[in-house]
Design goal:
single chain; alpha+beta; five-stranded antiparallel beta sheet; two-stranded antiparallel ribbon; 7 strands
Length: 246
Amino acid sequence: VVMDGYLLKRKFSLAMLKSAIKYMWLLTCIVSNYSCENVLNKKKNCDLKSNEFVKKEFDNYSNEYKVINDSILIYTDSLLKSFLTEYYSLWEVDSMLCINSRKTKLVATINISIGKCEECKTDDIIKILGEKINGVWYFFKGGGNLTVPRNYYGKDAMHPLSFHELSQIGRKEFLESALIKNAAGEYVVNDKWIDAHFYQNGYGSYKTKAEYDSVHWIMILQKWKYRIDTNEYKPFRKKVKIKPAT
């Protein structure tokens, strides 16, 4: 299993700066191997606008990306039950983060590789929501999960989808509506799309978004109430997680 294409290319680009020209051929191979036309089965096409957005904007939200990764590591190490999937599977936060214009809310996806085994027929893509409260980011699951059948993409139990393939599928299925063009013709995150993940049913008995945000705080705290019973989940062997790009 390999990283999502942008992170992999970025990792090697940084290595090239440190190790000079001898790695240039490797970058060429990566660009070639991870072109949209070659990575995915023709049943699904890459969302090119998302890929271009990531190339342009990743450095602007790389700190938030690191915070999400570090947070998930804490959640899994703390045996939080809502992050059981990440506890026993290989995972990677997708390099496309959707952050609203106020920099207070975000929607991201976690690409999950179940691994190689006779029973491993699917992989998963999970949405995670983030809210910045008093200058600190907090995260909780929300927005839906996508089960990705391997045979639909020409894979099988012993050949999981790569993180790059999962990334492209997730951007097509989960993040396609996240971007809109601004007045300058540039792709930016759609604030209304972000809000829909937090306020799908309106504000209920609350009059404002600010009042309804207290519900999100409850959801953030709720995930700490339930821990994994390691005896109950002994059949799941914890795997070594791939470290995020630095």
